Amino acid sequence: MTDHGPVDDDARCPCLTGLPYGECCGPLHAGQRTAATAEALMRSRYSAFAALDEPYLLASWHPTTRPAYLELDPDQRWLRLDVLAVTGGGIFDTSGTVEFVATYRHDGHRGKLREVSRFVREAGRWFYVDGDVE
Predict the structure, then answer these.
(1) HSE toward the beta carbon, residue 21, CA cutoff 13 A
(2) Considering only CA atoms, which of 21, 29, 23, 25 is closest in space to residue 59?
(3) Element of type H or E holding 96
(4) Is residue 67 a part of any domain in this protein?
(5) What is the span of the domain harbouring residue 36?
(6) Is the dihedral of CA 76, 81, 87, 92 positive or negative?
(7) What is the pTM of this model?
(8) Domain-located, residue 10
(9) Tens-digit pLDDT profile for residues 73-99
(10) What is the CATH number of the domain that holds 108?
């Protein structure tokens, strides 16, 4: 464990960019920097689900759609993230979407979550707004 949370800084980041957690999502989770793109925010949120980082998930959720609290299941293990499509969400955009498939294991069974997530950038910071789950 490190000051970034339950993922070791030297371990491969759960979002599967190939970078170590301490160079990828860890600094975002620790509040040391913000996501530059909607995809980077989506990847950091996936890693936060994998690390059970509820405070980061709530802080990165747009205030107009953010729930009051989250109850993450520690028995659900997130295994893989595949980004399928990105629309907008770049460094000069104010909105964007990211379509992804996240694979997980729960109670000995594998499952997949497919979602098209919507993001907005306000005051230079990206927020998750909502998503359509398929």
Answers:
(1) 23
(2) 29
(3) strand 95-106
(4) yes
(5) 21-133
(6) positive
(7) 0.93
(8) no
(9) 999 999 999 999 999 999 999 999 999
(10) 3.10.450.50
